[in-house]
């Protein structure tokens, strides 16, 4: 029986503030459209997942993402890439929340115990408070405090212990197959991908594209 749901934050509950994060790119006169950013996210996720599965991931996801974005924009600039990566790694720059997120979390918290497991900089709870949803969660586990990042099993173990939860009674919702889905399932949890960008539409893994769809799936008897 499912009793607990843990959420990733980035690209699951909160989304990047592109006005701040992409400022170095905007200063060069390059303003990628939302479609371009989603296309880059889809292609980078698929490539990064393959590298992780084959133990060939020499760089971070965001390093790969911005390398691709800059090359496609005709500006292969390592200094700008590093600025973009640094800005993306700041929790404070992930403060865009989709309408209905708090209502969806409130509905889920009436039926499950819910928490957060996030690769962050030790400040993700402050961002969740600023976005008005921190109080929805019983626990918030931040890699910057735990000292291990997903998919390392230690961060999932820390979150389960903090919640007093059993892995087989717990579901993890995150946006990356190699980091979130693999990390959670190897920790003994169930998992489902929050695939807002549609990167995994052609794959067999459990996935949803919105919080509303997640709620619908959880209400069905064969959801997970």
| CATH superfamily membership of the largest domain | HAD superfamily/HAD-like
Q: Which structural category do the helix and sheet elements fall into?
A: alpha/beta
How far the N terminus sits from the C terminus, by CA atoms, comes to: 10 Å
Kindly state the number of beta strands. Answer: 8
Count the helices. How many? 11
Estimated share of beta-strand residues: 5-15%
What profile does the largest beta sheet have? 6 strands, parallel
Strands in their spatial order, largest beta sheet: 5-4-1-6-7-8
Low-confidence stretches: none
Q: Which CATH first-tier class of the largest domain would you pick? A: Alpha Beta
CATH topology of the largest domain: Rossmann fold
Mean pLDDT: 95
In helices, the fraction of residues equals 40-55%
Describe it for me?
This protein is α/β, with parallel strands linked by helices. It has two domains: 4-15 and 96-219, Rossmann fold, CATH 3.40.50; 18-93. The protein is built from eleven helices and eight strands. The strands form two sheets. A six-stranded parallel beta sheet has the order 5-4-1-6-7-8, sandwiched between helices. Strands 2-3 form a two-stranded antiparallel ribbon. Helix 7 links the parallel strand 4 and strand 5 (139-142).
